[in-house]
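Following up on my earlier thread - several people asked me to post the actual chain instead of describing it. Fair enough. Here it is, all 208 residues.
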Amino acid sequence: MLTCPDIDKGKKAIVFGLDDVLFPKKDYLLQVYYLFAHFLEYMETVPPAKDLTHFLKTAYEHHGESGLFDRAVDMYGIAPKYRENFDRLHTAAKLPLKLLLYQPMLDLMSELNEADKKIFILTAGNPTMQLNKLKHLEWNGLDRLLKVYFQDELAAKQLHPLHFLLVDNGLQASDAVCIGAGNWNTALPDGGEIDLIDAARFIYPAGS
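Reply from S.P.:
Thanks for posting it. Predicted structure:
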């Protein structure tokens, strides 16, 4: 498992992703499904919230987010009109529980701050939903030390997100390193590229 000393000391800035990088994305989604199930039980009395919550959790774990509402419609005959409520909860839900950072990431960001490194978050996806996630995270004071950029918002303005982040903060590609999950393209318009480290290498012990 990597720790702060494994990051090149010459790097001035660390750019983190959000989902499954700083916290488990499922922790947000499962609370959304819980809220939707209880909302639907209140409105229609059926299906029981406990049953629908269990169904949505299991379907998500086996099939992912795509088509999840349609699976629930097929299973329980939920009226299609409730899709709007389902979608709205994804972007504006007031979660009953705080979202917790992965402990290794909390430790890493704290150490980076002590080392006087700049910390950024560059997150993809619906900006309203991503902002809602950020608001529900328990930052332990770190939120005052970082700067957030929304990839989709910048791309909609015909801006290259990583390039914009660098220019906005007076950085060169060699000054930064990205810590992300999945297939994060860190190539820049000028042909350069920012170093990338898989977040899992910080979160999980080697071989796990």
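Residues 36 and 85 are 8 Å apart (CA to CA). That should answer part of your original question.
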